[in-house]
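Quick question, first post here. What does this chain look like in 3D?
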Amino acid sequence: MLFNNTPAINSAAIIGCNWGLVHLGALQQSQVEVKALLDLDINKALHLAKQHGIAAACNNINQLPPVDLVIIASPAASHLTLIEHFKHTAIICEKPLMGLSETQPLSSWPQNLWVNYAFNYLASAQLINSLLEADQPVKAHLSSQVNLPLNFTLEQWFLETASHPLSWLLHKLGEPKQLSSTKCQRQHDNQHLSLKLACKQHQIEVDFSLGGSPGIFHQIRLTQGDNNIELQGEYVPGQAWRFAPVLLNGVAQNRGEYHPQDCWLQANHRSTSSIIEHLRGHSSKQELLAAGGFSPNKALWLEQSLMGE
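> Answer (accepted):
Ran it through. Tokens below.
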């Protein structure tokens, strides 16, 4: 049974040759031919296209060949322009959808636009999903720390990193309303951001900071009734992502999550593949949303968490 009249998704172009190449494996597994790479650095695009056997490379959107699907993995400031340009093509856009842009969201988003938030596709997240009771209030605390050599502001780093586990919490708990936001400078020049969010009967507290050991570190604690659930994950430069065992009231529920090819990249592959299956008509919009897919309006919950309504 097909749920829509979307044309076959057989070809794709990738815009942005850094994180954009993460989607290459999922596209190939889904038998989607990547026809072109686009990057402002044409030499990079040419080199990577040759390395991966991709026919075309360019640095201008008007040079892209006709394709069924466009992967947008360029800086967030360019997303709206690219979405508008490719509005008649299926689109998978990397997060954040708009970032810190002061431009107003589109009044009408393209129907076949989806945003890649992959945290719900981790095995650890799926395990915790199975431990949570439906319709019972949850108190969640997310603590994230980042120290990587890129020139981003505190807010940009939040949307690049802490937004991943937060997207999963919002997927489970619902649309957020910002109750408070506090930004401060701590000792050793560490910058810190605290958020308090309400999602219907649920509560989320976020503590996000820059500094500390090199890498990305997440700690998530969920309290529901008498149950306390905990998950910790870390990325250390040069190593694959690693998640500690999920703890339920201090007792390990699995052996943790790690793979030499990186469990985080695998979660992104599953996210991309799920979107492609929907675009091909094999699942409904409601089924993709329930599985962890992010439509444009749902994706904007992350910006809404940071900046308020």
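The longest strand covers residues 215-224.
The chain has eight helices and 16 strands.
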